[in-house]
Amino acid sequence: MLRHHGGSGRRTVIPTDWSAHHRPIVTDTHGATVSLRRPGGVRGAFDEATGKWATVANEPYYEGYARIQVLPANAQEKTAAEQEISTLGYAIMLDHAVTGMQLDDLVAVAAVDDNGDPWLLTRELTITSIEGGSLHWERRLLCTDNLETPAEVTP
Fold it and tell me: Which DSSP string corresponds to 47-61?
């Protein structure tokens, strides 16, 4: 890390390499594996038994490590189609260099380490916000989970 002051004796509050210096510490906390994909998919084969066309989910555009944090303050009860639906918020932290995500993209949790909650493996989260900052350690996505609807994800 660079010196916190120049030759003139003036202190630099935040050195220019501050984010790069701290990123390895944050990266070590990424104990889950996730994939990101666009919602929807392409029409597949017609199923005679159900009388419906199958939908093949879009392929993931990102697969990698993440840290997942529940945001209990973001939990809400909503009404949709005259039914009460519970939602829960999550923060998903990815490597700082990950780009390309869009609002409403889907995050599927593929694995968690021994510190993680295996319940997450059955959930598919929807991106509601993409965050960044001038002091940038990691990419932060805010997501919601509709707790009433099981995810169509197979771990």
Answer: ETTTTEEEEEEPPPS
Residue pLDDT, tens place only, 74-113: 656 666 667 766 678 899 999 888 999 999 999 999 999 9
Q: Which of 18-27, 62-71, 110-119 has the lowest mean pLDDT?
A: 18-27
Exposure class string for 2-37: b at 16+ Cβ within 10 A, else e: eeeeeeeeeeeeeeeebbeeebeeebeebebbbbbb
Where do the structural domains in the chain lie, given as residue ranges? 18-39+59-146
Which residues lie below 8 Å from residue 87, measured CB to CB, with a gap of 6+? 74, 75, 76, 77, 78, 144, 145, 146, 147
Indicate the range of 16-20, 41-45, 55-59, 63-67 predicted with least confidence: 16-20
Q: Name beta bridge partners: 79.
A: 84
Region of 56 please: left (phi>0), alpha (psi -120 to 50) or beta.
beta
42 strand-pairing partners: 56
